[in-house]
Amino acid sequence: MSEKKKELRSRHWYGGTHKDGFIHRSWMKNQGFPDHVFDGRPIIGICNTWSELTPCNSHLRILAEGVKRGVWEAGGFPVEFPVSSLGETQMRPTAMLFRNLLAMDVEEAIRAHGIDGVVLLGGCDKTTPGQLMGAASVDLPTIVVSSGPMLNGKWKGKDIGSGTDVWKFSEAVRAGEMSMQEFMAAESGMSRSPGVCMTMGTATTMASIVEAMGLSLPTNAALPAVDARRMALAHMTGKRIVEMVHEDLRLSKILTKKNFENGIVANAAVGGSTNAVVHLLAIAGRAGVDLCLDDFDRVGGQVPCIVNCMPSGKYLIEDLAYAGGLPAVMNRIQHLLHADAPTVFGLPISKYWAGADVYNDDVIRPLDNPLRAAAGIRVLKGNLAPNGAVIKPSAASEHLLSHEGPAFVFETIEELKAKIDDPDLPVTEDTILVLKGCGPKGYPGMAEVGNMPIPRRLVEKGVRDMVRISDARMSGTAFGTVVLHVSPEANAGGPLAIVRTGDRIRLDAMNGELNLLVSEEEFASRMAAWQPPEQKWQRGYYKLYYDTVLQADKGADLDFLVGKSGSEVQRESH
Ligand code: FES
Asked: Where is the Dihydroxy-acid/6-phosphogluconate dehydratase C-terminal domain (predicted)?
């Protein structure tokens, strides 16, 4: 047995001649594994978020077979294991409430088992960050294989995009421009293959960031879920993870500040989701990388959006794949990236874009004709958001990015739902809609409700966008002049809690300002009078979450999960 094989972590489980070694091997053999697979070869865990209740990840057991082929071919021993899965469209009150729970599950599952490297199979919005957070706290060699997008939605001879067209259709129904029959018929055409939302929603945003950070093989972000080349990519990933174990190329060697900065640049260039902000902050917290909200402004603020995909543009991710995918995007913005950032290959990230051509200049725009210049997520500060808020200019209306108007306040999401279609709601297109109680603690889970519907009486007049401000998130597929992630949130005593209907608010997105225009004395007296809401959650995960969740500007992780514990486990099980 070589010295290298002796060092493998899995030998502590499967290499012993004592009773524990017997127990570990013998029970695994009930699956038909022969003696020789326990000979000291790398054991690769395939961490799978497959679930029929996560439709975006429902094909991941097939991709796991591709990974296994590659692991066997490279001389490893693949073992697939499930972790909890988070279906964005299926969970209440919001899948985000459970991202940190998934991260705990992933962390402990990896650490507890005798594996040497991990392939993370995820896709739907929270599965990718949840898996990376957990894996970062253990720090084994790790690669991501993403679900890949659904094929383009098709309806009435047109391409329709996940999420983005749902928001448009539901507004059209409210405006009387679309029948309920048509609305229902569009459902089937929108989701017609396995895979994640095929707009630049949070899933493909995170997959793009993963690729730009060198955490997956090239082309992982955009290849359709059902494209045979994704299966081949899974196979190649299986081969590579075995080599990474031999090289001891751990996740911490790839999660450097440069890689995070490349992720921020890529997010801006693809017109990615605001959700990436909370997820990258949380992953950085696990990895011990000093990333803060202002880095998104500093690094991404001036980056042009060159990917013309919904919700910022008009195409879908299948089109992005055929136009060259992320390697071609990175090639176009290479002057903005750290070319020497490390990757899962142990090679610099510049190898990912070397020779990558663009095949459609309208899908991946040239730098002299971007979809929008200076399109990165902007961080807003001011007396209304002392610790920050975010806005996505590429999905906003240009004329509203600098706007002052009177607030109309909804104290809860229930109040909003009850009143928004009131024909007498006293609002105009200049009104700023404010929603409270939807942050990490308030909802709980910081739901994707920040893109409040436009009041019906304004929709009927043709208004399609207004300034909206909340402590919530919004779907990566959504659009509008929407200020999100206000921190601290209302339920944690942030100034959002003291806004009243009729107060004037000023937004200056491109200068990073968000202010409540009341006198200092009035502001101070309202803050002094604020009372924290009653803590409703007395048991279970909700209580743990509520008591320990961090605010959005810190990534909304649980405070005791920040950092890492490594991979060592001292004691045997028997
Ligand atoms: Fe799963 Fe959009 S709902 S990726």
From this structure: 362-556
Beta bridge partners of 142: 118
Determine the Cα angle at 492 with ends 491 and 496, to 5°: 65
The protein residue with its alpha carbon nearest to ligand 1, atom 3, reads 88
Helix, strand, coil percent content, the chain, rounded in steps of 5: 40, 15, 45
For residue range 104-141, list pLDDT tens digits in order: 999 999 999 999 999 999 999 999 999 999 999 999 99
* Ligand 1 proximal residues by C-beta, below 6 Å: 56, 88-89, 124-125, 162, 196-197, 201, 203
What distance in Å separates the CA atoms of residue 23 and residue 32, rounded to the nearest whole number?
A: 15
CATH number attached to the domain at 41-151+193-353: 3.40.50.2300
Atom of ligand 1 nearest to the CA of 55: 1
pTM score, whole prediction: 0.97
Considering the four listed CATH numbers 3.40.50.2300, 1.10.10.10, 3.20.20.80, 3.50.30.80, the one that applies to the domain covering 378-529 is: 3.50.30.80
Please tell me the distance from the alpha carbon of residue 98 to that of residue 124, in angstroms, as a whole number.
Answer: 13
Here the ipTM equals 0.99
